[in-house]
Design goal:
The protein has about 200 residues and is an alpha/beta fold. It is built from six helices and seven strands, in the order βαβββαββαβααα. A seven-stranded mixed sheet has the order 2-3-4-1-5-7-6. It is globular, with a radius of gyration of 16 Å. The N and C termini lie far apart (about 40 Å).
Length: about 200
């Protein structure tokens, strides 16, 4: 039994922001698999199909670890059994990076997950949303919506992310390298193309 867990902020105000691409991917994956997510015993929605849980946090990003810990307590899964999915402004838009363990890289949501689970041995899929334009604070950038050029590429990016999840499920040792090759190239992803939020 394994699980994918998408991080993000709750509510319609945040649903289409860059910070919520983890939520977007689990929604996309659940829809592709014909899964319905329902409320769990904590701050999360979850659905189960065969041997895979698909999980979406319903708390704010900075306390994501509470929701993930609640899910693991309910299902008795180990931290190594889950793939946490979240945004990364240090990676260019369209870039995918899967790693079996590591630090938070300054991401508050992943920092909370590591703190509450007590380990860095948590597989994670980082989805590039950056970099922020010059003069734009990171907090403002991640809470803004994608540019029109990026929105046009989102379906392709989410499909690539879903294929990366499939790779992690079928061959976790090969997945880190293979996922990088699935990254979506955005030739129009420039500062001039993305107005300040």
């Amino acid at each position: 039994m394994r699980a994918i867990v998408g991080l993000g902020n709750p509510g319609p105000i945040y649903s289409l922001t860059r910070h919520n691409i983890g939520h977007m991917l689990v929604d996309f994956y659940a829809q592709r698999e014909g899964m319905r997510l329902t409320a769990g015993k904590g701050d999360f929605l979850a659905g189960l199909k065969a041997e895979l849980w698909v999980v979406k946090t319903t708390c704010y990003m900075n306390v994501s670890g509470i929701a993930v810990a609640q899910f693991l307590e309910e299902t008795s899964l180990a931290p190594s059994d889950i793939l946490v999915i979240y945004d990364d402004a240090a990676l260019p838009f369209g870039k995918l990076r899967l790693r079996p363990r590591g630090g938070s890289g300054g991401h508050r949501g992943m920092e909370s997950v590591i703190y509450h689970l007590g380990t860095e041995g948590i597989p994670r899929l980082r989805m590039g949303i950056g970099p922020p334009p010059k003069g734009v604070f990171l907090r403002d950038f991640v809470l803004s919506r994608f540019s029109k050029a990026e929105e046009a590429l989102l379906p392709e990016f989410l499909e690539a992310g879903a294929r990366c999840v499939d790779l992690w499920l079928s061959d976790p040792e090969r997945a880190p390298g293979a996922c990088g090759e699935l990254s979506v190239e955005n030739q129009t992803n420039t500062e001039e193309d993305r107005p300040n939020p």
